[in-house]
Amino acid sequence: MTKTRVLIAEDSIAMQAALSSLLGEDARIEIVGVASDGAQAIELACALRPDVITMDILMPELDGVAAIERIMASAPSRILVVSSIVDDRQIDLTFQAMRAGALEAIGKPSSARPEALRMWGARVREAILLMAEVPVITRRLRRATTHSGHRIDAWGIVASTGGPAALSVMLAALPHELPVPIFIAQHMAEGFTDGLVRWLASQTKLRVLTAAAGLMPRPGHVYFAPDRRDLEIDAEGIMCLPEPRPRGHTPSGDRLLESLAKTYGSRGGGIVLTGMGDDGAAGLLALRHAGGVTLAQSRESCVVFGMPQAAIERGAATDVLPLQGLVDAIRSTASMIKSESGGRA
Fold this sequence. Notes:
Blueprint: E1 4-9, H1 13-23, E2 29-35, H2 38-48, E3 52-55, H3 64-74, E4 78-83, H4 88-100, E5 104-107, H5 114-131, E6 154-159, H6 163-172, E7 182-186, H7 193-201, E8 207-210, E9 221-224, E10 232-233, E11 239-240, H8 253-264, E12 268-272, H9 281-289, E13 293-297, H10 306-313, E14 319-321, H11 323-340
């Protein structure tokens, strides 16, 4: 049996011991090293070439974000951030770490009770084993197609692993006067959504916020589904936050895109970004059947091609584009609104 080789980067001796013990409960995982600061994490990453690195954010000598940047430049690896979610600064740094190359983030345990630690350890082990299957890739871009003849009044975006970094690139490239709202279903570990919203708000001129039930969406605003809720748009164009379905991801990309298909029809746009699994494929197909613009992120620009690939294989995507191509598509479809209104958003 081939084991997943893991390097732990954590300055707390107690957390080092907890991670070592909990990861050691799975015979498929082998701990190959433990680093107590960022500089040592870089050194061990280069020497050991682990399959996965668990990375704390606040460490002496060199913090986790700087360590990730250097590791991804010299010894690329799959990196799981293990960070506190009670400190806003650490949450903000977590999303900087994702932009630097980390794949996922898990909050540190909020309780030291044995049962709580066991449940937390199981989530960490599952994340590590899933990440071990993700290829570390070099990204190349392809030319974008344009959709300048198609007006879109609202966009829905679905993302999972690699999504925060992709979203930061896309939202930063969009103009503040964008005449349409954007709705996003991003799969995140519980407790990180508010931090993601706050971080992305600092990366873009658009207004980024957590969706609230009963509100009418506004142009130039980006709305995220909150923790433990789905996001839908009803027939009147009002945001709804229904309870999640018994099975599937929360927030559900399928539910978001299906609601756009019903409400906006051919003037709805959908994008499936990087991520594991197939969430968003069924919703994107519903939107395509309604005549909307449906896009998937290209393999070369994805951290994980699973979700876009599922959408493509179902015939849901009208185009497959890199991040800049997706930005261009949003810009070109939104420009139809301006031209129809004489240049006014």
